[in-house]
Amino acid sequence: MNLAGGLPDPATYPAEELADIAARAVRDHGPEVLGYSRIDGLPALRDRLAARFSDAHVQLTRENVLVTTAGMQALDLVGKVLLEPSGRITAHSPTYLGAIDAWKPYRPQYRPFTPDGSEDYNQVFSGAQFVYTVPNFSNPSGRLVDVDQRRTMVEAAHLTGTWLVEDDPYGGLYYEGEPLPRLLSLSGERQGPVGNNPYRGPVIYTGTLSKEVAPGLRIGWVIAAPEMIAAMVMAKQGSDMCTSGLTQRIALMAMEAGLAERMQPRILALYRERRDALCQALSDHLAASFTWQKPQGGMFVWAVARDPDLDTDALMRVGLEEGVCITPSSVFDVTGRNHGAMRINFTFNSPERIVEGIKRLAKAVARLSSK
Ligand code: PMP
């Protein structure tokens, strides 16, 4: 029972629709999609993304948008453009493993912070080469950053002149409540009207089609000030030359057909039910040894052991013997320290399998505690 990964349920991938779109993309746009694409991305796709993320507060143009080879490349480019060797990153702790991996070659110093208002963000942000945050249902913690903390972060980024990376793969996965404003939008509001000029604030917004359509498309984007986009274009040239023109065209055609919007209600209902099944199973079988909060969205529950000495690396090993896999907190810590917590995914498996997985995990906890 794999409760460790961060994968969507493959049954949600719109295979039929994408097969049809892909065939039309090659037939109708052959030379374009089979040749090299522009480094900055298909102009029509950039326009579409600019329109999608513009709102009453932030005006975006094509100059604000770079198409990337999914979200991971966006994070890689952030490192390439902004990180000096041994420079400082201010980031949530625990932090997304992929981001830790992307920036490891620069051997950065990490300054952890918790977006709960307990610290002065001006101090926390000062001196950082950038701040990294996943405000919607963070990976691994599942945490949703509230509006006040979003505003405080944006204010601190503007005041201290610090780049603020808003990584948002889970912004489309709210199971309850209205989506909270993006840091990008709050930053546009803070900046005020600038005529028809494109956004020039400190937020670097990164997004992806991986969770709303399918990760195999490897389509993502960065939205940022034009000078940041220009620097990233240079870095991308030396990285992969361009994102596949074929998958960019498929993504554009899928967007024009409203594919993600049509899929969304089904995906939300499916994952909401699974989240509820996981939380119920945790209450039924693991409440004596773990605490957790039911996440309002995303893909993960973060469970913290009541006994701070419970080593979840060891739990993972015993769990594997029982036929269940979770991700221990140590992999989300830049120093590899175990915090007596674990990440449990609820999107990949059916409710029945999730319940079975938690029963097996409870056996593993009992075995570990009796050692
Ligand atoms: N950021 C976070 C926080 C993620 O969880 C993920 C996917 N697991 C990504 C970025 C990147 O995903 P992709 O490269 O598939 O867009």
What does this 3D model show about the protein?
By secondary structure, this protein is an alpha/beta fold. A hairpin with an 8-residue loop joins β8 and β9. The strands form two sheets. It has a seven-stranded mixed β-sheet with strand order 1-7-6-5-4-2-3, sandwiched between helices. Strands 8-9-11-10 form a four-stranded antiparallel β-sheet, covered by helices on one side. It is built from 13 helices and eleven strands. The protein folds into two domains: about 250 residues, Type I PLP-dependent aspartate aminotransferase-like (Major domain) (Aspartate Aminotransferase, domain 2, 3-Layer(aba) Sandwich), CATH 3.40.640; about 110 residues, Aspartate Aminotransferase, domain 1 (Alpha-Beta Complex), CATH 3.90.1150.10. It starts with 14 loop residues before the first helix and ends with a helix. It is globular. 4'-deoxy-4'-aminopyridoxal-5'-phosphate (PMP) binds next to α4.
Note the beta-strand portion.
Answer: 5-15%
Overall geometry comes to globular
Question: Number of helix segments?
Answer: 13
> Compute the gyration radius: what is it?
21 Å
Give the class from helix and strand content and strand pairing.
alpha/beta
H/E element sequence: HHHEHEHEHEHEHEEHHHEEHEEH
The CATH superfamily name of the largest domain is: Type I PLP-dependent aspartate aminotransferase-like (Major domain)
Tally of individual domains: 2
Biggest beta sheet attributes? 7 strands, mixed
